[in-house]
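Hello forum,

I keep getting stuck at the same step: I have a sequence, I want structure tokens, and every attempt I make locally crashes halfway through. Rather than fight my setup again tonight, could one of you with a working pipeline run this one for me? It's a single chain of 160 residues.
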Amino acid sequence: MIKKSFLIKTDNTQNVQQAQVQCYDDIKDIELISQYGFYSSPTNGCQVVEMQVNGQAENVVGIANDVNNQPKTLANGETMQINLSTGAKVYCQADGSILITSPTNTVNIDNLKHTGTKVGFFNADPIVKPTVAGIKGSSTALASLIAQLVALGLITDITT
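Reply #2:
Ran it on my machine without issues. Output:
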């Protein structure tokens, strides 16, 4: 038998993910299963499809899905992973590009276009787009360039 329930809570402390689900007045504990390599902790209240393994009522597994928050604009073949708590997304688009979106930034992996206002490399604090000052060929322009590359985290200045 297959039926639709609603998630009350999950327990991720066991070897397999356990969930307490409710279908009408029936509340029970079941094992949640996921696609290979993908793990999540579903939000309480989401839908769970319950399935009896080998038709055994005492051996039930479920798959959780949140139909209220699923993306409505995906084209054929596209996938999206969403963190409903933060809004962070990984969006694999039909053209082969990948968009990674956090609450404050978006990165397009296809062309690495950074649409944020700050960037930092190699664990440097992110800074706004730097400006290099000075007359080309002068030591002040070179010093300005070195300072900005250091600020971005792209180089370590050991010049004397």
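The two ends are 76 Å apart (CA to CA). If your local run keeps crashing, start a new thread with the error log.
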